[in-house]
Fold this protein.
Amino acid sequence: MQIVKQFNNAVRQNIAKRKLESRKLGSNTSNPLEKWSIVKIKKDISKSNELKNILDPDSLSRKDIEKYKLIKLREVLKYVSKYSSYYMDLYERERIDPSSIQKLEDLESIPLTDPVAFAEKPYHFLCVSRRDIAREFTTSGTTNILKRVSYTQEELLEIVDSVVAGLKMAGMDSEEDTLQIMYPTITATWEPGLVLSKACDLAGMDSAINDSLNAESQISTMKKVGTTVIIGTSSFIYSLSRQIRELDIDPHEIGIKRIICSSEPLTEFMRKEIEEIWGCKTLRQWGMTEMGLANAIECTEQDGMHVNNADFLVEVIDPKTGKILPPGEEGELVFTTLRRKCMPLIRYRTRDIATLIDEPCRCGTTLDQRIKNIKRIDL
């Protein structure tokens, strides 16, 4: 029986590896996250007559991506109106007609989803049978309200795929790089270290987990496994970096080529000090458990975090009035999941303040959006 179990696990692992679009991105692929998103969008176009009729997958423009997202939004609105008891009741009461959403400005007619409502009755947002749930995560996020988020097996694989695309965006090379994962276990109930290490494993990348705040322990691991990229919470990496400055070593000689700070705000002062200590660029990453953990990451231009374009419709609103603000203006981040089946969230309030950048980046991306200057709303 143990042999059969090991064989089945190996088969599932090989199937999962083949499904990862991010594995197909070469180590020298420019803008991997955008390339990965476009592959996803093209696949959706190939499966939808409506999308085929209005979009040419071989010549997508920013306006085409907007059309794609509006069509996916109408699809998800119809879907949750049929399968989610929360949205079914809400949209019937508010007389929401998905077909009436024809332009981005029409989004204001759709009620916002409050994190409190989601926390109070999470299973009212569920659109599949509970037996189809592969994993549940709990999070308090920026609201300090405990929320339970469910995912199917296919969605977990999508998360892994997006994580790998994000790591490649940050400069990881599957053949030469090793990711050192530094998340104190008390920071999240979804075990980010295990998620990241599993993603690396499926993508053929090397990784090592060390949650010790002891600088000598971390350095020892780096030398042992040949670490080239570090990821962890902003405060953890900042504190560790300051410790290393006091050691009788030169961090520049270790060979770290990139550092990724996530889960917490990273000030420019912190970033500057980390970069001086390690001698490499430090990138911000942003994500929410409700949205699938890995949602946006900076490129080396460090001019805003590139959003996973295929999976999300992003808005910035006035947190008091709910009015949608134009790109460049500061307001509350609002996310809509476009491809989730288990627990889709429509116009979900993140309680994070940011600005939306809707123009090409100096790194060469031309079709995605970026979010910048993220900070938390004081509740």
